[in-house]
Amino acid sequence: MDGDGDRSRKRGGGREARRAERTSGAHGAVHVPYIVRGIPTYDVMGEEGLIRIEAAADRILAETGIEFRDDPEALELWRRAGAHVEGTLVKFPKDMLREIVATAPAEFTQFARNPANNVRIGGKNVVFAPAYGSPFVMDLDKGRRFGTIEDFENFIKLAQSSPWFHHSGGTICEPTDVAVNKRHLDMVYAHVRYSDRAFLGSVTAAERAADSVEMARIVFGREFAENNCVIMGNFNVNSPLVWDGTMTRGMREYARAGQGTVLVPFILGGAMGPVTSAGAIAQSLAETLAGCALTQLERKGAPVVFGNFLSSMSLRSGSPTFGTPEPAIGSMVIGQLARRLNLPLRCSGNFTTSKLPDAQAMTEGTMSMLAAVHCGANYILHSAGFLDGLLSMSYEKFVLDTDLCGALHSYLKGVQVDDDQLAVDAFAEVGPGNHFFGCSHTMAHYETAFWDSETADNEPFEKWEANGSVDAATRANRLWKKRLAEYEAPPLDQGIDEALREFIARRKAAVADMWY
Amino acid sequence: MDGDGDRSRKRGGGREARRAERTSGAHGAVHVPYIVRGIPTYDVMGEEGLIRIEAAADRILAETGIEFRDDPEALELWRRAGAHVEGTLVKFPKDMLREIVATAPAEFTQFARNPANNVRIGGKNVVFAPAYGSPFVMDLDKGRRFGTIEDFENFIKLAQSSPWFHHSGGTICEPTDVAVNKRHLDMVYAHVRYSDRAFLGSVTAAERAADSVEMARIVFGREFAENNCVIMGNFNVNSPLVWDGTMTRGMREYARAGQGTVLVPFILGGAMGPVTSAGAIAQSLAETLAGCALTQLERKGAPVVFGNFLSSMSLRSGSPTFGTPEPAIGSMVIGQLARRLNLPLRCSGNFTTSKLPDAQAMTEGTMSMLAAVHCGANYILHSAGFLDGLLSMSYEKFVLDTDLCGALHSYLKGVQVDDDQLAVDAFAEVGPGNHFFGCSHTMAHYETAFWDSETADNEPFEKWEANGSVDAATRANRLWKKRLAEYEAPPLDQGIDEALREFIARRKAAVADMWY
């Protein structure tokens, strides 16, 4: 049911070898490049509701309009496409944007430097990537502090060494010890050097986007990169209803190069959008649709991912809240809307406002992560590490979340039904009142039957107590240290490595450091 | 969308009063007697798979059969109904059981002594009840110890004081300081005395079942109890494929009195059933179907709930595991099968093997609890308190889970779509680039827009740190103590109270204490 396995990781051998793999935990588990879901999406809204939300989005687009600030070329593209441009405000006739986005692919491949790790984005495919954008990092030993390039590299290594991840992500944390206008070079380099999976480039300025794409060309070859998606960028709407030039110039840079863009509103209900879900969803549809269409005006057929990031707010303090029920349900509706546009989908992730990898973190995190897989998201950014309302990447939470990603591999397989899975012969063999422990059906299946968590403790209470009564966060603390100690970098072609270093040195030498 | 509110709890007053309710937390929140779901069930399996599983269950029933031990009357009922009885083994011709269960109601009301708390079980209704059956209790102060009648009463009080619970449950923990053959009397009394919601009676022996039903008759009146469901019992299959006489005699006692039964296999895959999900689901269907049919042979139309309790096992230790992905998905398939039988459904709950209210507890707990609401369960036992693989009731986890139950009230509402919810006028009022904080649409909705957790901390990091950097378990520890300190018993008619005490004294005096 899953996609083709990564052959470079599969070990040979028979039953003993398979058992050794299983009992060695996730490290010995079979990595798949991405998940092909075996269960349907969870469609919570009926046709009538969807049509009303689409009509509301159409009305926002036609009557309120969307501002495109600080990007005259984007305005010119809109003008030529037939939109009504009044200053920086753009209004869209009904159906115009739907017609334009029809040229975007429903499904595409992002190539990885190890071809076994290429990911298909769209359709029934699900790709997990780390959290993105935190200025701080946290662990149980040192608490919260600003992220550094060492932290950044550590998280790439942790993602790379997990068989339950498919994508290296982008700005996993801000490496605040590197100048703002140069850190994108070190980040892209770290993704290439410490991971052999697909990754995201920089988006914080058009020239940084261009540098990111250029580095991808060095890795994949100029000609290959011209005709294939080898890097993506994640771009945010300045909700409500504003696309800033920094973002649109960056995303046009990626699209012009034939590279992928992920376009995401950030709607905190009651602040950057209405406080009611239906309104926030309509706004989200309008904002993302306009962005997706702009990529197609820049280059027809450029891969683009329809993004979603709904959130709620505390009624008592006005603080943002994450992992709450309303955005979880809202995400499922947005998934339905994205499929009606035939576009790949990015949705939610593992969100929380908790400041510790505790019960709150995983209640909120599990609810939002399940919403992401239920809604049919093809690319799930923020799959691991997210704490503190996206302000901090947590080493322990990263490991706990990665384990949940592993569980979701089993979850998304669904239930297979054939005579063997139905255990037809086993009932005849065992009969009423006897146990299935030793029967031949159990022996044939027990090694692969159930998800085997690395962070959960399933031992009896007495044994757990004898082992020190530790909680899941403490186990996760031990596990990330073990992972980093055992990490081995995947091989990288020396010529590529040198060319990247040379490019970086040249670009760094060209300008003075900027620190804000 | 929800059911009728409990008028006795709703406060009067306008906007200020509503705000006071919300800001006072869950205690001021509006209690509903049960949830009427506004989102569909999550149907993960197609028609073809369901038909194959039903055929496999039919084959188990016809060829392997089910043992009914130590209950000659049950065997006689089967014989008369046309089953093949060989000793204690009963085999069922195809379709026989489906025809028999057709007399069971698809939906029924269990009455509470406060009529505002009556629950409808079946259809789109969802009823939350506490966990059931732990010998131990736990809290962060005193650790794990055997449960007592004081603990039992405490958990009833905690459930009663939560607006997010609908049902008082049954053996919330074993009150091990009361004799085994007498504790059912104290347990039923505690449910009546400290809660005004519906509850479960005892099932551990036919005479204890009879005592439970008799006490319900005292509370509700003999005539009313003859024609209405005023108590239910939760009965377990001795999987695989055995119904013990203790259980069948008890459940026939309830059914004969026209009272409700909840019938539940306990299938730990690889031990009490096949290690593969499809086989475990087929077995579950066979076992539950046979039990449901027996209630109808005892009394046509007796309310019966189709139960499900799938679990997995650790491949490394052979220990049971809970809250894992395979049973979560399996539960959704069982939900589909129950609906095809037109029977009310009990499913999973908030499960975990963790020994602490930590990240593991809520990862596993949230995954299994969401499966329970997604699969369409109408009665969700084990909604709160479950730790340690069902061996311990946790005070802290009870409060954390209750909070999750609150979130699920919002979740199950789904997304409402009308002009007001679509915020049509708000977009015109606010426009691109402005915030929605103060707009009239936000002002009209913000008090009720989002679920407001009592245990989550959404404050900024600095404020959280200044408040002592406490984790969710510590907040829960404070909260359950506050709840118990503030608890007030609902009024109980003095005549009923005296009659119950008299009955209990008489029954206790009649026999010597048994301690095992």
From TrEMBL, chains A, B:
Region forming the signal peptide: none
Record's keyword terms, sorted: Methyltransferase, Transferase
Superkingdom of source: Bacteria
Chain positions covered by the region annotation Disordered: 1-25
Compositional bias annotation for Basic and acidic residues: 1-24
A Pfam short name: MTTB
One GO term (biological process): methylation
EC number: 2.1.1.-
Similarity comment: family membership: Belongs to the trimethylamine methyltransferase family.
Protein's name according to its UniProt entry: Methyltransferase
